[in-house]
Amino acid sequence: MKQLLVCISILLTFNLGVFAEEPLGNDLDPKIVEHRHCHALQDLFNDALNLHYEQIIFEYNSLGPDLKTPVRLTASISMNPAVYNKEVAPRGLVLYNQFTTAKHRERTTQDAIDDIAFYLSKYQDLIAVSADLYGWTLTEDKPQAFCCPEITGVESIDAWDAAMNILQQEGYEHKGLPTFNVGYSAGGFSAMAVQKYVSEKRSDLHFDLTAAGGAPFDITTVYENYVKTNSTGYKCALPLMMVAYKENFKMPFEYKDVFLPPLCDNIQEWILSKDYNTWEINERIGLEANVDEILTPTACDYTQGMGRVIYEKFRDNSLCGPWCNWQPDTDTKYFIFHSEGDLYMQYFVGLEMANYLKKKGCEVETDFGNWGNHVDYAFYAFTLEAILEIETVIGDDISDDIIDNIDDNMDKITDLSDVIDFGGSSGMVSSIKSVSDIPNYDSRKYYTLDGREISGKPQKGIYIHQGKKQVVR
Fold it and tell me: 3-class SS at 288?
């Protein structure tokens, strides 16, 4: 674990609706296609980190975007060598939902072996399952179903069921282990989509913790904010969503109706071809482009016409908001993270999701502090806090090394991103801007990240104490 956090410290110096019916059961027909050894981050400091993990790559049956047509998809099971070789028993199971990908071979069964999330498997003796989803590997000639929750939920849980079958066949003891559902960015959206599907359709499944960060839970809020501010730090976000929705939901518009040149003339080359990653797409759209230089006036007006049609489709596929009425599993603990300094999408999208869960009676931990931009360095702060949340659920005694290194690395994130406050805003669930915002603040006491005083000895977690964030063992 100490190596994990040393790795993260080094990395921080770089700028880095309606769901388908029950699953296919035995018709999933899982088949292992490859065992591979992954050696990650070899190019970093001449392989000084020496990071290794094992993967079982498999195929399974699921459903396509219409939730009717059978498709064959791929997924991975990742674990550290000791667990893989059955020298150490696994401590938990993680459904890891990957972040935004746009280019060939960016999925977890392909070349994306440097994903920091797999360090959970390497250092914490967890087994991680990750679905490639529709539009990748075996179906790579098809458009990806980006931020399409019902499709994602079905395909991810089919992958989970298939993985459990494979683990049993391969002799891994996994029944009764704690289960975690984790994702950041588009992966955070996927994690909550999975939770919605499980809560509504799979009473036989349960996640002990769903941790989601930096995600567009309410797509309409993202859409509205981009248009109203005429700004986005992630130029390809709306185009990726609109293309996915047109292609997978057969929406009745032409690309010239919603996108301006040069984007409208290059959808096939820039997006559907999967020849470019997200930042290469951003560069082609224009890193300085305003929203009204990307979207047509029709698309910028979500109150009427085709803009309204798109807005309503986004609304129907959002995971929170006044129009949502799904009941999350209240036996699941939730961790919602979104940096106040996120320039890709505003942190109040996470605040909306946390508020929704709270109103539905769920236990919710949050962090909306200013941890810098989406990946600089919020992604790493989320990963560190998710590690702690997972350890808290597992309930083992957390070693001093784990706690000390998490604490040290959070301080380093804060220093590197020049954060001097705790972040936050108004709302039912929020973090605080500074200790002066806490009524009757007493530096000797412990407070949650949203400013609530803790009576007695605090449990394991992250708190405000003596004017700064501290990790309590």
Answer: coil
What is the distance between the terminal CA atoms of the chain, rounded to a whole angstrom? Answer: 15
Q: Token pair for residue 251?
A: 């929406």
- Partnered with residue 63 across adjacent β-strands are 70
E strand residue ranges, 191-230: 209-213
Helical ranges in 216-325 per DSSP H: 219-229, 237-249, 255-258, 267, 278-285, 297-300, 305-316
φ and ψ at residue 43, rounded to 5 degrees:
-80, -5
The CB-side HSE value for 28 (13 A sphere, CA atoms) comes to: 26
Per the DSSP assignment, residues forming a β-bridge with 211 are: 182, 335
CA distances from 356 to 195, 259, 322, 326, 346 (A): 14, 32, 9, 10, 17
Could you give the CA distance from residue 444 to residue 354 in angstroms, rounded to a whole number?
28
Q: How many residues does the chain have?
A: 473
Type of residue found at 289? A
- 54: closest CA among 72, 80, 75? 80
pLDDT in tens, the chain (473 residues): 444 444 444 333 333 333 444 444 459 999 999 999 988 767 655 666 567 889 999 999 999 999 999 999 999 999 989 999 999 999 999 999 999 999 999 998 887 665 655 555 555 789 999 999 999 999 999 999 999 999 999 999 999 999 999 999 999 999 999 999 999 999 999 999 999 999 999 999 999 999 999 999 999 999 999 999 999 999 999 999 999 999 999 999 999 999 999 999 999 999 999 999 999 999 999 999 999 999 999 999 999 999 999 999 999 999 999 999 999 999 999 999 999 889 898 888 999 999 999 999 999 999 998 888 888 678 878 888 888 888 888 876 555 555 555 555 555 544 443 332 333 332 223 344 455 566 776 767 887 766 777 777 676 566 777 666 666 65
Determine the Cα angle at 430 with ends 426 and 436, to 5°. 75
pTM: 0.83
d(C-alpha 227, C-alpha 224), whole Å: 5
H or E element at residue 360: none
Rounded-to-integer distance, Cα 111 and Cα 165, Å: 25
| Apex 189 CA angle, 184 and 195, nearest 5 | 110
